[in-house]
Amino acid sequence: MTDFYRNFLKLCSMLVLQNVVTLSVNLADNIMLGAFSETALSGVTTVNQVQFVFQQLLMALGDGFVIFGSQYWGKKETEPVRKISAWAMRTGLFIALVLFILASLFPTQLLGLFTTDQTIIEAGRSYLAIIRFTYFFFAVTQILLATLRCVEIAGVAFGLSVMTLVINCSINWILIYGHFGAPRMGAAGAAVGTLTARIAEICVLIIYICKKQSWIGICIRDYLHSDLRFGRKYYKVVCPLLVLQGLWGVNTALQTAILGHMTAAAIAANSAASNLFLMVKSAAVGAASAASVTMGKTIGSGNLELAKVYSKKLQKLFVVMGLICGILLFFIRIPVLSLYQLSPETREMANTFLIILSVVMVGMSYQMPTKSVVLIRGSGSIAYSMKVDLISTWGIVIPLSMFMAFVVNASPAIVVCCLNADQIFKCVPAFLKCNYGHWIKNMTN
Question: Which phi and psi angles does 125 have, rounded to 5°?
Answer without folding.
Answer: -65, -40
